[in-house]
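Encode chain A's predicted structure.
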Amino acid sequence: MIAVTALATALSGCATANPAPPPHAANLRGFHSGPCNFVSDVEVSAAAGAGRFTKTVDSDVGCFWQENSTIGGFGEGMGISTWWYRGSDMDTERELERKAGRRLANLSLNGNSGFEASDANACSVYVAKGGDMITWSVQTLNPSRMPDLCSLVRRLAQLTQDRVN
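Encoded structure for chain A:
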């Protein structure tokens, strides 16, 4: 009897220490992402054009493909990037893009809200879920030699959204 009482007390203590998540907890969960937000070099080349970009950064939080048309140091920093942010604020990102002079448009991918920011040489797509945000961006000195910049990053962002939810 003492053993049964002790077991019941222990189990009730566990239940108290680890309460069930509130019903809205699923809405707080973010993305389950992976390397380069689950988009391969081959897929980036297919979207942007073969031979135009070379991956130069590959980290746990994102990747960067450098534009190959740089001349010396001119044009460095131009390329395609994807980053995964935990705890970032979408309003802060909107304000930064607005201050950069980019046009903003709301969008939704796979039920996750976000926005697109663009100008003649750049386009970025930001998508949020819970406390996470994933962004895809392209910046180029040669927009006329590229596919439509926003279509390109929307395509890559859609690939990610199809794989991270």
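Residues 123 and 150 are 5 Å apart (CA to CA).
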